[in-house]
UniProtKB/TrEMBL annotation:
Keywords noted in UniProt: Hydrolase, Metal-binding
Highest taxon of source: Bacteria
UniProt-listed Pfam families: FAA_hydrolase
Taxon lineage: Bacteria, Bacillati, Actinomycetota, Actinomycetes, Micromonosporales
Keyword Membrane: no
Organism per entry: Mangrovihabitans endophyticus
Record-linked InterPro entries: FAH, Fumarylacetoacetase-like_C, Fumarylacetoacetase_C_sf
Family the entry assigns: Belongs to the FAH family.
Entry protein name: Fumarylacetoacetate hydrolase
Amino acid sequence: MRLANLAGRAVLLVDGGAVDVAELTDGKYGPAPRDVLDRWTQFRAEVTGVEGADRIPYATGDLGAPVPEPRQVFAVGLNYADHVAAARVPTPEFPMIFTKFPSSLGGPATPVALPSAVVDYEAELVAVIGREASRVSESEAWSHVAGLTVGQDLSERSVQGRGPAPQYSMGKSFAGFSPTGPAVVTLDEIGDRDDLALRGWIGDEVLQESRTKELIRSVPALIAYISGICRLFAGDLIFTGSPAGVGMGRKPQRFLRPGETLMTEIEGLGRLEIPLVDGSL
């Protein structure tokens, strides 16, 4: 199952188009994606097929963030060994957690206005919580996941670096700085949920390439850690971290430029195609 957001309505992406969830269920679920996720366990038990449902044609650019109104958005820094090595810092003893504010969410092809010349990219696997989680163990954690999606953790590095302490959440929460999509893909549609190829590129230039098995802390480990401190709710997002290759760490540094299209793909989950435009004042 691939849950997406088409013009603010929850849809399932299938061969031949999109199926409107509210119409499919005679109004029991939807029309908003949040309504489906708030009752995700019940929805998954009751909605098992789309036979005979009308298909709505769509393009990637018609889709919004598949989870447009999460209660909480968590993100993880320095969670790939090669990223830690490139940053020349010790592996964090505990997961390095910050938040990205929900107003920064965008869809899989939503244009992003670059506010400066130092906006960076970070291709990431994003886990979507499907039911409340509080102090869950790693062995239980996957059962609390609705599905996975593709994300980018964009960062305005000058704002992020403002002292006396780093301003991660502010530097990473400009409008459109958290593109996600195209859909929340349920685990039964994913081959090996612990080992997915991840890639980010612009034109012919490959920026990042890795596999999610290289995560220092896996999705279950992150859910166990975060839920031991914060209660997680259905629809919450966890950006799980980015591999090496970010622009700030390159020599010379390589930041995003207006007129480019930032591509991000994860095996089995789909692709983001983010147009970049000039948003400087």
